[in-house]
Design a protein that fits this description.
Blueprint (H helix, E strand, L loop, with lengths): L2 H14 L19 H5 L29 E8 L5 E11 L4 E18 L5 E19 L5 E14 L2 E16 L4 E15 L11 E9 L5 E7 L16 E2 L5 E2 L5 H6 L2 E7 L5 E8 H7 L10 E9 L2 E9 L5 E10 L2
Antiparallel strand pairs: 1-2, 1-16, 2-3, 3-4, 4-5, 5-6, 6-7, 7-8, 8-9, 9-12, 10-11, 12-13, 13-14, 14-15, 15-16
Length: 339
């Protein structure tokens, strides 16, 4: 497939994807942060092309030979009693020319006390969701472009309600070794429910993201920029708490302009010593920072930082992500080289 045809496909999909970001979709857990490395770089990164076998959970076009026989296990102490994790593995066949990737994402929502409409207790209930994926990528002949796809089966159980669905992720990756520059475009969660919770078919949380990154030539740093949720541009809103009041009592609401819309789609991150056995990562998610910050108080919402250390065939990763004054999350991960 010609690169221009692939680009046209993504542009058409982005025009169709006009729904709001949250609150109207099934299987929202599909957009949770997949690993400590992703969390440290702001929550979403598309352009790593190396050993990180969890990267294809977000961008299947990043599947490559360095992931062969790598196993990753991740756990997140999320908000409240919610906990989730992911697992990923890649294996090369046919003389190490073809690499297949499998991934698993699971979330448990904890236990809840149930009550009927009259306030009478009905006992405890719980909820959990899981997605299993298989992915593959290939290099477009005589080019620096890679194309990949994930096929996912999704199961969700919320109290007495159950749903089953399927989806695909499609990505294209551009890798320029001379410039040490990477770019990627991904459309995720293109799919449907096979069975619904209560007879109402709900859309899946489509996400279209663009990523850029580059490793500096004389400094051991790789910078990352991600533009997320391009399927819905109007994600900003006027916060009434930021309204300004004049001396005569006239109230002026916060204006939402192009710059404020753009910043809410932007994630930035950086990795120090990206090629070594020990590296430090830091990121900032502008949308998270804007939506969760407290007016006139600095609480560092949207900021995240972490590290990774390699010991022989084991790589340990940790990230701390700041959400709000009341809620923060710790991400733990291990990666095993089984070769």
């Amino acid at each position: 497939m010609h690169p221009r045809a692939i680009l046209l496909f993504f542009l058409l999909v982005s025009l169709l994807g006009h729904s709001q970001i949250g609150g109207r979709f099934a299987y929202q857990f599909l957009n949770l942060v997949s690993s400590p490395r992703q969390a440290a770089l702001g929550g979403k990164n598309l352009t790593n092309f190396d050993y990180d076998v969890t990267q294809p959970l977000l961008n299947p076009a990043s599947i490559n030979i360095e992931m062969d026989n790598q196993l990753a296990l991740n756990y997140v102490n999320y908000l409240g009693d919610v906990a989730y994790g992911s697992a990923a593995y890649a294996y090369a066949i046919d003389g190490r020319e073809k690499v297949f990737h499998v991934g698993l994402t699971y979330v448990g929502y904890g236990n809840f006390d149930g009550y009927d409409e009259f306030g009478n207790p009905t006992g405890e209930f719980t909820g959990n969701e899981i997605a299993f994926s298989v992915g593959y990528a290939f290099n477009i002949p005589w080019s620096d472009f890679y194309v990949g796809a994930n096929a996912k089966l999704i199961s969700s159980s919320l109290e007495q309600y159950n749903s089953f669905g399927g989806a695909v992720d499609v990505g294209i990756f551009y890798k320029n070794d001379d410039l040490r520059f990477n770019a990627a475009l991904v459309a995720r969660n293109l799919g449907t429910q096979f069975s619904t919770y209560a007879g109402v078919n709900e859309p899946l949380p489509l996400a279209i993201d663009l990523g850029l990154s580059q490793e500096l030539e004389h400094v051991p740093i790789r910078w990352h920029i991600t533009l997320e949720n391009l399927q819905y541009w109007n994600s900003a809103f006027s916060n009434p708490n930021r309204a300004e009041q004049s001396l005569d009592g006239t109230e002026t609401q916060e204006s939402v302009n192009f710059a404020k819309e753009l910043i809410r789609h932007t994630i930035i991150g950086a990795e120090l010593f990206p090629r070594s056995g020990f590296n430090i990562r830091v990121g900032y998610n502008f949308r998270r920072g804007e939506e969760l910050k407290i007016v006139d108080q600095r609480n560092f919402s949207g900021l995240s930082a972490g590290f990774a250390i390699k010991m022989n065939k084991l790589r340990f990763q940790y990230t701390y992500a700041r959400y709000s004054v009341a809620s923060n999350s710790s991400f733990f991960g291990v990666m095993l080289n089984l070769n």
